[in-house]
Each structure stands twice: as structure tokens, then as C-alpha cells.
Amino acid sequence: MTANGLPRILVLYAHPDPEASVANSAMLAAISQLSHVTVHDLYAAYPDFFIDATFERELVRDHDIIVFQHPLYMYSCPSLLKEWIDVVLSKGFAHGEGNQTQGKYWRSVITTGGAAEAYTPDGYNRCSMDEILRPFELSAMLCRMTWLPPLVLHWARRVPVAERNQHGENYRQWLQAPGALMEEAKDGE
Question: Domain Flavodoxin-like fold, which positions (predicted)?
Fold first, then answer.
């Protein structure tokens, strides 16, 4: 926790083409001035995909909430984020005999190119966003982290600018006061 009682939040931002992302750019702009939030752009830090696991694990240790912000790619995350999960949250650190992530919180913040209706059993993708994100929820569980409900912006490039900006504002507000969601998640365990 910070001196002002807010949890330390690490936003792992993973977008292979950040200049093309109007939604993620707006979301990052909305949160950029929050002093208890560290935004870590994985594609900027590791263009060669060689992840410094020691540095990354120190970041994880130093934060209470880990936010995985990325576009939905092929029903998953961009490849560098998957590499980060595999390398950093490995057995011996985050699970197995390792317990460095125990008690932390995991929240996925996702943008999609499709409308919300596409993520239903009858929609184009034939399953819900909860079903698509199940591997991430299971990873959080394996790492003894508390899974927080994802924050999803559907149709990210096509929503009206006002709606996109409101989504960024909702994201900022949650990062400034995540307690209610954290309590709700703990009550559901």
C-alpha cells in the first residue's frame, strides 16, 4: 500500500502496434497521472522479446494489483504478454513452491474489435468473454491471486469517442478506488 492508503498497481500494457490503438491510447491517457499506478509498456521495454525476469519479478513483488491491459488477439493476449506470463509467473516464483504472487489481485483490461453481441453463445465467437478469459482466471488461481472481473471495451475502434472517453474515465476511477471491487472479489471466494 502507498502512504495514502491506495494499493500499488502495476499496469502491464501489451499492444504490438500502440500507435494504431485509439482505445488503449485513450485509456492510458486517462490513467497516466495516477501516482500509485506504474504503467509498464512491454512492447517498448522488450522489442526483442527477451524478458528480464529478475526485473519483472521485482515489479510484481512491489505491487498489490497487477492489471493486464491488452487487445484481445486470437481469443487470447498478444504474444509478448503470453511470454511474460510464462517467464515471469513461473513455477518457483508464482506457483508450486513459489508464493510471491499470493494475495495479489489480477485484473484483465481488454479491448476487442467485435461488438459485445459477438461474445455470446449465439454470437460470432460462440462463447462469452468469461469463457475466453478462463485461462487467465485459472492462471491467477494457480498463482494464488484473486481474480477481479475484467474490464472490457467492445468494438473499441468503432464506439463513439464520448463512449471511449467514458470507458477511460471509468478505468481511472477504478484505479483510484479499487477497494470495493477487491472486497467484492474476496467475499465471492
Answer: 8-174
DSSP state of 117: G
Query: Which grid coordinates belong to 108?
Result: 484483465
> 160 is written with which cell numbers?
463513439
Nearest CA to 111 out of 163, 160, 157 is that of 157
Question: How many of the other CB atoms lie within 10 Å of CB of 152?
Answer: 19
Could you tell me the sign of the dihedral formed by the alpha carbons of 7, 13, 18, 24, in that order?
negative
Cβ-count burial of 128 within 10 angstroms (0-12 exposed, 13-18 middle, 19+ buried)?
middle
Dump pLDDT digits (tens) for 122-179: 999 999 999 999 999 999 999 999 999 999 999 999 999 999 999 999 999 999 998 8
Q: Over the stretch 16-55, which tens digit does the pLDDT of each residue have?
A: 999 999 999 999 999 999 999 999 999 999 999 999 999 9
How far apart, in Å, are the Cα atoms of 132 and each of 66, 72, 106, 142, 150?
19, 10, 16, 17, 11
Architecture of domain 9-179: 3-Layer(aba) Sandwich (3.40)
Domain definitions of the chain by residue range? 9-179
Give the number of other Cβ atoms within 10 Å of residue 160's Cβ.
9
CB 115 within 8 A of CB 129: no
Q: Are 133 and 110 in contact (CB under 8 A)?
A: yes
Rounded to whole angstroms, the Cα distance separating 52 from 46 reads 9
